[in-house]
Amino acid sequence: MSASPRTALTDRRPRALGRNALGSQKRFDRRLGEILDHATAVFCDKGYDAASMRDLSRATGMSLAGLYYYFESKEKLLYLIQKHAFETILASLRKRLEGIGDPEQRVRLFIQNHLEYFLANQKAMKVLSHEDEALKNSYGNEIRAIKRVYYRTCLGLVEDLMHRRGVKFSGRIAVLSLFGMMNWIYTWHNPRVDADAGALARQMSDIFLCGLLGAGKLKRNSRPAQ
Amino acid sequence: MSASPRTALTDRRPRALGRNALGSQKRFDRRLGEILDHATAVFCDKGYDAASMRDLSRATGMSLAGLYYYFESKEKLLYLIQKHAFETILASLRKRLEGIGDPEQRVRLFIQNHLEYFLANQKAMKVLSHEDEALKNSYGNEIRAIKRVYYRTCLGLVEDLMHRRGVKFSGRIAVLSLFGMMNWIYTWHNPRVDADAGALARQMSDIFLCGLLGAGKLKRNSRPAQ
Amino acid sequence: MSASPRTALTDRRPRALGRNALGSQKRFDRRLGEILDHATAVFCDKGYDAASMRDLSRATGMSLAGLYYYFESKEKLLYLIQKHAFETILASLRKRLEGIGDPEQRVRLFIQNHLEYFLANQKAMKVLSHEDEALKNSYGNEIRAIKRVYYRTCLGLVEDLMHRRGVKFSGRIAVLSLFGMMNWIYTWHNPRVDADAGALARQMSDIFLCGLLGAGKLKRNSRPAQ
Amino acid sequence: MSASPRTALTDRRPRALGRNALGSQKRFDRRLGEILDHATAVFCDKGYDAASMRDLSRATGMSLAGLYYYFESKEKLLYLIQKHAFETILASLRKRLEGIGDPEQRVRLFIQNHLEYFLANQKAMKVLSHEDEALKNSYGNEIRAIKRVYYRTCLGLVEDLMHRRGVKFSGRIAVLSLFGMMNWIYTWHNPRVDADAGALARQMSDIFLCGLLGAGKLKRNSRPAQ
DNA sequence: AATGAATGAGGGTTCATTCAT
DNA sequence: CATGAATGAACCCTCATTCAT
Which residue is nearest to nucleotide F17 (CA to C1')? Predict the structure, then answer.
């Protein structure tokens, strides 16, 4: 995570920056990214609620009070982790979809993008999937808003495809089933045993697309449930 | 939710209970079941780690110390909830599978059984799905053992079906994808908006079965991963 | 302990006794003695404060509430144990001193009586020695009163002896040193390794008597402290 | 009471402390020593088991949580108190024995050292004597190891003396009787009534030495028990 | 830029005890 | 004669967070 571009994850710089402003800001963000990485690992292992700031202090090698120089609360840490993951995956998706016209290809691309990021950032994605309800109030609202955008993007792709193929099926059920297939991975994927992101994406795409297109041609599913 | 046999709970009580009247045993189990139900709701809402015994005390209307008369620890509560859910769903599955021979029907039945129980006991099933790693040591091992049995049952059904249809696909990926589709439901299902268990089961079965059988006939999936 | 004579250890019989009164009282006292024995063992092993009524319940095989039929409180249990021990040892001492005139023999007899009871009732005596300050208020006062009688008895014997031999030494220091020697035994005596009560009594008597009579003839101890 | 080296306490703190300023270390140790002193008083008055961390919080004027910044557990507190007492008394003993050759003088010096420390640190010594079994596992083992060294030192002095004087007596019984005499003091010594350490040491030394040397010349004790 | 020291609130759990039966 | 069920108070300990430095 710390390697990816990150621009001003937080604006909570405590005091006016002198002539060294730019370098200082950069250093701040680098340190912050490192902490975020450690926090991701700890939240992944113990769960957000069970993880303590002391665990984080130990993991980062930074003092308890030092952490609060970078983050105003434990909640904010989770918020930053989740926001960063969502924004990165969304940005990557948008770039990849540019110039791709074929609706099936676009859905396959969505799945591939999701799984590649998922397996390359398993810990962050587990935290994203598992700590879905941990954030309350404005932090939570902001994350939920991004999530909705992501969901709707997928829904658009799927409905596009169904429309082109003359298939009738509940887009909501289809998309949420797809997310289930993909996000559940964090509960079982073992890198030493299971296929890599490319193979996994192909298999899940095949199941999902054959399933959706096949099911959509059966009589009973021809009226989409709301 | 009906209670587990009393013997499981007696360890921490001052002395072994010998000659309980039958009525007393029944009353004990009824009270125990009520508490378990409240605990399920609380664990569902706040998550196991974030839920406190004081929350439970409030929810049940029983004193904090009173709870410990029925349960020796918070962990044991979660254990009993998860064990009960798994055992009930497994027992129901076995009964339903009796006398059904058609492999596709058997897979459909598995899905239907899972979703019916899932939606009829949403809170318990969220606790089962979401608190998968919360239990440690022997409690955790016991639950994981039941879970493995359940997983293997499903794997058997799916592999049976693939074999009959001459389909090649990784059974592991197929089954885990199916579980993902189904278990993810707890994150989105809204009884006022979404279809009921029967309809949902039909739709997911269609996607999964069309998907699996279709995908299994594509060239690239003809060699099962690992 | 239950084998020794015990007359109405408690008068807390809950209701009027019918025609079966005497037998009932006997049965009550027998049961009570059994419980007292178990309590002695538990207090000895864990210490009075660390021992819980649940420990006692377990040890006696009686329900928690059942214990309270025999004893009104945990404190009363300790009180009864200590009182019984002191009264028994005092009664035995008085009997043995009857008809013995020689002052040295009388002191030796005191030591022998103390150590015989100590080793025959090690657990009770550890509870007596170690939980010296655990009892408060009236229970504590009563025990302290018996203890004072016991102490003064010993002091009388020792001062008698010193007087006869023309020895000057602080009786208080002498007697309290003797009690220290004897009571400390509970911290080290191992029945499989150490001598029995008779031998031990002889050795301690020799040390104490030679010591007191020898020391009392040195110049510097000839003015007793206070 | 001076504090133990900080390293012993750092385990539970969020991260290993590296570059503490020397002044900081000193301040920490001073505070730690103050708390240890208060804890000693509280453990002395109520007993280790009956004393609560809240009692300590009250006695020190520090918050409950604040105490845990200095000590990781109640048990560790007792451990530090006992260890400090034993190590101080042992160090003092070794210094005093240097250059003293006469066996009798060496035993007298042992007694004097013990009683001087005992009366100068009555509370700590009561905690040492009375809470002998409270510490379990590794803490307990460590304290027991120091205690054994102390015991054997004394045994060596006493056996030396007996050998020089041609006296036969069980060294074990002699030494343990001496410890009994001395350690029992915490149950009765009243500074306003009783002699000071010097006088007490002289009296006890006289009793013990006259006793041992006298008893060792009586016929019956000429074969040492075990 | 980061820390040591400290805290109020709350965590899970156990306590001695009671009372209707 | 003895119990099962229940409780308020207290237990030891950890939490996220702050603030002077």
Answer: A73
What is the band of A156 on the pLDDT scale with cuts at 50, 70, 90? Answer: very high
Question: CA C10 → C1' E6, Å?
Answer: 52
Question: What dihedral angle (degrees, nearest 10) is formed by the CA atoms of D151, D157, D162, D163?
Answer: 120
Residues D120-153 pLDDT 10s: 999 999 999 999 999 999 999 999 999 999 999 9
Q: Where are the domains of chain B?
A: 5-221
Contact between chains at C214 and D206 (C-beta distance less than 8 A):
yes
DSSP label of B170: -
pLDDT value of position B15: 57
Mind listing the pLDDT tens digit for each residue in C116-152?
Answer: 999 999 999 999 999 999 999 999 999 999 999 999 9
Cα separation, B105 vs D127, in Å, equals 75
pLDDT 10s digits, D51-104: 999 999 999 999 999 999 999 999 999 999 999 999 999 999 999 999 999 999
Nearest residue, CB atoms, A211 vs list B169, B211, B225? B211
Does position B165 have pLDDT exceeding 50, yes or no? yes
B8-35: burial string, b at 16+ Cβ within 10 Å, e else? ebeeebbbeeeeeeeeeeeebbebbbbb
CB of B68 within 7 Å of some strand E atom: yes
Q: Is D15 on the interface with A (CB under 8 A)?
A: yes
Q: Are B189 and B126 in contact (CB under 8 A)?
A: no
- Which residues does chain C have within 8 Å of residue B15's beta carbon, measured at their own beta carbons? 57-58, 61-63
- A 17-56 residues inside an 8 A Cβ radius of B: 47, 49-50
Distance CA B72, CA B84 (A): 17
* Cβ within 8 Å, pair D14-A54: yes
- Contact status of A91 with chain B (Cβ, < 8 Å): no
CA distance B3 to A226: 39
Among chain D residues 46 through 85, which have CB within 7 angstroms of nucleic chain E?
A: 62-66, 68-70
Please state, in angstroms and rounded to a whole number, the distance separating the CA atoms of residues C47 and D41: 20
Burial C178-216 (b: 16+ CB within 10 A, else e): bbbbbbbbbbbbeeeebbebebbbbbbbbbbbbbbbbbb
The dihedral sign for the CA sequence C199, C203, C206, C212 = negative
In this prediction, residue A20 carries a pLDDT of 61
Span C157-172, average pLDDT: 96
Q: Tell me, what amino acid is at C133?
A: E
Contact flag C61-B14 (C-beta cutoff 8 Å)? no
What is the DSSP secondary structure assignment for residue A224, as one 8-state letter?
-
pLDDT tens, position by position, C181-217: 999 999 999 999 999 999 999 999 999 999 999 998 8
pLDDT tens digits, residue range B40-58? 999 999 999 999 999 999 9
Helix (H, G, I), strand (E, B) or coil at C144: helix
CA distance B83 to C170: 73
Q: Is the sign of the CA dihedral B113, B118, B120, B124 positive or negative?
A: positive
Domain A5-221 has CATH 1.10.357.10: yes
C177–chain D Cβ distance below 8 A for any pair = yes
